[in-house]
Give the backbone structure.
Amino acid sequence: MVFFRSVSALSKLRSRLVQQPSFLNGSVRWLQMQSSSELDLHSQLKDLIPEQQERLKKLKSEHGKVQLGNITVDMVVGGMRGMTGLLWETSLLDPDEGIRFRGLSIPECQKVLPTANPGGEPLPEGLLWLLLTGKLPSKEQVNALSKELQNRATVPDHVYKAINALPVTAHPMTQFATGIMALQVQSEFQKAYEKGIHKSKFWEPTYEDSLNLIAQVPVVASFVYRRAYKDGQIIPADDSLDYGGNFSHMLGFDSPKMQELMRLYVTIHSDHEGGNVSAHTAHLVASALSDPYLSFAAALNGLAGPLHGLANQEVLLWIKSVVEECGDNITTEELKEYVWKTLNSGKVVPGFGHGVLRKTDPRYTCQREFALKHLPDDPLFQLVSKLYEVVPPILTELGKVKNPWPNVDAHSGVLLNHFGLTEARYFTVLFGVSRSIGICSQLIWDRALGLALERPKSVTMDWLDSYCKKAA
């Protein structure tokens, strides 16, 4: 890739990173800007882990008693919202700027990560390398990692049998999670733990499980799709394609634009720091030394909830209900009326608002840019654009929403629908495939850093009443 041979490009990126807010310095500090000739990801990690272990040890010894904030009753009864309580190295979510992967924003990742096509979208393999090592990979390193994932992607027959034992009408997420649980019998971590392994080496079988899992989830996910919607006609992998392109191919979509969309989709959905339901669930389950398969399956069950990953399904269904009731040429006033009708019925407008973000989700923005480039005349995209103008002022007027702006789910379904993936019930499976990259990357570091069993303290309402009366 030209980027890694260009001193001027590196200098510009270094300059941008130096200008980042001070709270990002810790994560950006060890983001290595030089390209390494080492193509083996495992070897890279083996060199990096001792440094980060020592960094954490020093942090605990020198600053272990530093307070990070006050816990309020609102936080306790409000789902621990805003409570700082997890270490998550791979990404950090800023309320105004959105997600940063190892300190890099989505636009920066689009500029500097290797691509399949000149000027195209980042390869998910490149983001995996970045999340795990904090280093920007070369195209050669990404190609080597892509080939390694292909070699790890064989799924045992018993996995397909487990999925086939379910009704074909079962929700795709149910089928997908079942397949992941069936993969668990091959866990290298479980085998190593049962034989006896020193805790300093826990990360190595976790690495093997995680890379295997990341490699296998597109195969399982595409099997679920073809089983549920295409009469079980399975499409074998194409080893000439990269991770995102091959996933699109196995689903049955060989359009170059759809393959580019899948690369973008997997990349931007991969990680969103550790506090969201799926990431937190995986971290919690893994803290009990459950293997990556058990941890990721638990995460998928959280992702399947309508307040989390299932929202992308709800958005497209809601948008299509707008068209069904109001027609293709809906006016701004008619759209406003429909939005108010939705809100007055006690429902939410799906795809708007976020628990942390306070501005438009950058993941929405990059999808919008993709649409403007590849499908500007799509009627549903034009409707999404109109919703961007209509919904935020209404939610602001309502006065109950801290963030009236669109999130990632507001756009993804329309893009998928345009290229022929119209089955909204399947969308959350795509989210799950993507999230395997972020969750497994962090899980490897959980093991390498020896992070503790998660065990927060809970209290009763009587305890809260008593405490608050004494504090008054």
Notes: Residues 1-34 have pLDDT under 50 and may be disordered. The CA atoms of residues 274 and 280 lie 5 Å apart.
